[in-house]
Amino acid sequence: xxxxxxxxxxxxxxxxxxxxxxxxxxxxxxxxxxxxxxxxxxxxxxxxxxxxxxxxxxxxxxxxxxxxxxxxxxxxxxxxxxxxxxxxxxxxxxxxxxxxxxxxxxxxxxxxxxxxxxxxxxxxxxxxxxxxxxxxxxxxxxxxxxxxxxxxxxxxxxxxxxxxxxxxxxxxxxxxxxxxxxxxxxxxxxxxxxxxxxxxxxxxxxxxxxxxxxxxxxxxxxxxxxxxxxxxxxxxxxxxxxxxxxxxxxxxxxxxxxxxxxxxxxxxxxxxxxxxxxxxxxxxxxxxxxxxxxxxxxxxxxxxxxxxxxxxxxxxxxxxxxxxxxxxxxxxxxxxxxxxxxxxxxxxxxxxxxxxxxxxxxxxxxxxxxxxxxxxxxxxxxxxxxxxxxxxxxxxxxxxxxxxxxxxxxxxxxxxxxxxxxxxxxxxxxxxxxxxxxxxxxxxxxxxxxxxxxxxxxxxxxxxxxxxxxxxxxxxxxxxxxxxxxxxxxxxxxxxxxxxxxxxxxxxxxxxxxxxxxxxxxxxxxxxxxxxxxxxxxxxxxxxxxxxxxxxxxxxxxxxxxxxxxxxxxxxxxxxxxxxxxxxxxxxxxxxxxxxxxxxxxxxxxxxxxxxxxxxxxxxxxxxxxxxxxxxxxxxxxxxxxxxxxxxxxxxxxxxxxxxxxxxxxxxxxxxxxxxxxxxxxxxxxxxxxxxxxxxxxxxxxxxxxxxxxxxxxxxxxxxxxxxxxxxxxxxxx
Length: 734
Description:
It is a single chain. The protein is an alpha/beta fold. The protein contains 21 helices and 27 strands. Strands 20-21-19-18-23-26-27 form a seven-stranded mixed β-sheet. It has a five-stranded parallel β-sheet with strand order 7-10-13-3-14, sandwiched between helices. A hairpin with a 2-residue loop joins β1 and β2. α12 packs parallel to α14. The chain starts with 26 loop residues before the first helix and ends in an 18-residue tail after the last helix.
């Protein structure tokens, strides 16, 4: 069967358009006919199927080598020559194709684009140019595609890892794609033979075998009918027992049907069909079990009596075999079991891997094919914890023959990047196919949300999956109202509808605490401080902390409750060092009890409550009340410095929802605050650098407070003078 897409100038189709009459009609002929017809036949040519070493050649090209061998012809070229050849010297990613004003404000959220809607922005043809912000990763993917190198990408979900993997399959050079056939082995039925042929030729070979089998079956059927007719005729003429004649005819019929099954078993099984492939294959094996990844052999309940299915017909390819000459993508690589990782490492090293049954109790476990080509490029991906459970030898294999790259979470906010974000909106609309394009004002609101979600001043988030969800929700809202374009109001409404589960839970907690009067937002209370925490990645919640000092039954100690996790426990210990240093109370005779009120199932993780704990304990020790219209967040060093934390924007908004008027944050986080307009008039934000500044704002009672703050400064001395350095501008989430 010829392929409609075959063309004379397509190197992958050479030999694929020959007429079926010229295709070998038997396994014996298949075994000797190769795409390089000048080769001498092998000794195994008479066994009815191609020999094992034949599977490595196809159309005169060696296919079963290591992935890195494909770049031998370029090994002698300089890096500059390669860059020139593949266009890598150009700036990564295409420029946004749309009208740009000659002069525009640097703060213009459209980056100077002069458009009436995102419909006017051209979408890049190359998939790799759809990825925004990951310049280093895109550079590596381009070079890895040309040099056939493996890549491991580690980073947060939604940063473009899977899109880059797909883009690599588009960038791969045109290879000789192959069909893979599995033949019956007459010498050992449990060791099927494997043959590779140029893409498109596998169908022709199978059709030829089927035609030969049909002709043989027709001949057998004709002979069977003649013999049955002779038997029945003889019975009628001689007057012999009719019953014996019928029995003899049935026996002949069964005999012929049994031999026909043997003839059908000679038809090969095509496990990889590349005839319709227009580019290198891409196989996503994320979460695949062993059979789906490495191949399997189906169980046969009828294993004898002539009813069994031939072993070669039960062979199923794995993702590693389907990805031959293409890309194998495995996300969350650490979730693969160790045995699968070990076998995957073998497949990477050898470029071929035999298929056998994965279940030890299945009949397929007795079958093992000859090695099947699996010359793929491996792209492994995962979050930051992926390296923990990854087989070290597999990682070494990827690193030794490829690249490791860390995906960025944010990127610097520039006019060029804003234009690409607008193009991202256009890409999402075009990809969905049912959404109305965005007006400039709606697009600006999306860029504002990208700035806000970055958590850093002057940066934009690169977590595009979540941002794409906002675009789709806004588009759905506009489409439901039959609007021609998605407007700013639709985006604002989408931001409320697309809240995460954590944010919805946080809002529910806030409302319930108000109902039960658990939220205290006025007055002064000793030993109670309104702390701030985050739930998930984008949700803030107010978390009160209470402290009480009591006589010790034994040696004095700090006792913290509220399902504290490890980092929070260490934070409490750091706070106790400061308390012991400044307090006149003999803590060896006191127990300091600290409670995180209603910390919930998630507990407390991170040390962003350090200044909250310190303020509550100091208030309890000195019997000085704390303002309840105030909330705070910040990490605290053992010397009293207030260090930056993450999620300040979400924490401030949670405090505003709870009725808080003043919020203390680390001074280093001042540039990271990007709250919604509705909250700006509701709260006063006070940045601080050390614990004395915290107490000066948080404690009530001027006389007692001033005395305490002066004493604290005199005891700690110069430890509080240094300001948080530039490193504080890039906080890690606490």
